[in-house]
Amino acid sequence: MNFLNINQLKAAELEEIFQLADNFLIPDSNTFKQDPILADKKVLNLFFEPSTRTKLSFEVAAHNLGMSVLNLDELSSSMQKGESLEDTIEVACNLGIDACIIRHKESVIHDLANQFPSMVFINAGEGAISHPSQSLLDLFTIRQNFDQLSKPNYLIVGDLDHSRVLASFLEALTIVGAKNITLCSPPELGKNYSAGPNFDEDLNSALDGKDVIMALRIQHERLEGALNISATDYIDKFQLNHQKLLDAVGHDRFILLHPGPVNYGIELNADVKDQDYCKINQQVMNGVGIRMAILTKALLS
Ligand code: CP
Question: Relative to the CA of 131, which ligand 1 atom is closest?
């Protein structure tokens, strides 16, 4: 099966993926075991936008599952000679490659999936539209810290409009039945959300009583012009720092997430980095287990 978006999954299937990842986890550790159940499969990474953690964790996940991992770089491929992406996928099919993991600034993956039914397609980031594997590892990390995903009070703060992470995360929260979700951003980065009842431009009031706080990076690469808000104003009003969290949240059971990459000094002050509530490294580690689970489900279903 293809793994194209979160909405294709029901709550029971999300839980199935989490349990698969749980089973890959080495007990009492943050690492995932080698389990070469896909040793006869080949996977091709096709990343047309930059990535560190998604690309590397899909590679580590595939290696852990015994897969052959191939990488094709657009700049050194025959796409430089005018070959289309469709023809590139056809070559991959003819070479016996089983799955393509694609990150692209456009929504190309859906047409490719229709065009090449023998290939398994896995979405590793689709413009500002979706990032389903990220939302699964985010939920998996929350699930390690809270009993029920529907119960926490959620806050997402930062560049809402350009975040594919937010789009998929909100879909995933709906599937697991989360209802208490607050969004916070400067108006110019939250136009798609500011009319909603759960939008709060004031970070201090938005933080009050929250259990799961996710910060988002300003996606400069997707902005059409300069921001009106200055860096100083942004930091003053929207940056999360240790003292602001302690003062405004009102309890000490909260966790802090960020999908990365983090621009420390902008959306997060570096003083949050080593705090127990900061689960950013745990998110990165969980990327391996969740992507092992996604590859397993996609290739063995
Ligand atoms: N979270 C995320 O997608 O990070 P990368 O861009 O480094 O893959």
Answer: 3
